[in-house]
Please model this.
Amino acid sequence: MRLVDRVAQSRTPFIVVCNATGTKTRLSGASDYADEVASCPIRYVLSDELTRLCTALAYSKGAQTLACTDLIHIPAQRLWVEWASAPWQDELDRYGFPAGDRFGNCGRRGAFLNASRDGRRGCVRMFWCMGDRELDVFVSAMQARFDFDSPDNDDSCGMNDGAIRVADVHRGGALGTCFSFEFEKTWAEYYSRSQLSAAMRHQIERHSLSTIALDIPVLLTFFLLLNTRSGLPQQRSQLERLNRSRNRSGKAPLLEHTDVLAPFPAGDIFSRHDSPPSGRRRPRLHHVRGHLVRRSNELFWRAPHLRGNAVAGTLKTRTVTWAFDHT
Model:
């Protein structure tokens, strides 16, 4: 079952119990978003190929996707975006962000966004699942707020009236200037009452950031590709027959969504035939990182690839171009 359906069908509140006093505290969880997700007008489910592409583009070196915020807008005031964890984690590992299995390699991840009418400001909350039970659906304690039109250009990171900024090695990138992270209200109040030491507070902040910060560049890349002149291949879900069967069995119907595919098959970038022989000594097999360059309203991506071993195949083309309408 897709994560969006599991969130929409969540009914169990998220309650924590203090071991010392037995006090129970209800914190914001999946069940609090069930109605909002169920009534969300647009729900996107990314294919594995598109998930890999967005993650690779997000973490390519050079003129980062994060420097293209003038080309990005969120297409609805309420929006759900979902993808599988395995291809996302594979690409993160490739780019030096090992996530291990803390999020469940066979699980799914999802983002619920509330945005302004022009799609330039809003808030993001992350969801993920690690098992098949209702209690295996989790929500990030932190939420991300963004403003693409009035970024805070203060490069200082850390706490500022409860908001946290994430350092971005590429000056001017959206993650460091357009986004701030904060604990959701119930979580913020819970930690404030806990009288944590500064060291413990810092540790909790870093852990909570790890559940949401790495997703933001991937989401931005997806919206960037969605706004290209050619857009992304989309197909509406066909759930009528399945939902009729579920209704007869007394099960909740599955939510309609839009499956979004990669703009080109993987074979258009890589082929699997051997390279022609060469008199030079072959270099050791290594991964060449992608490189993203922007020129006016066009993006050029030099695709990541393996170099140094003919068995890995030769590159049919390394350059992918996306064009945007002038705004």
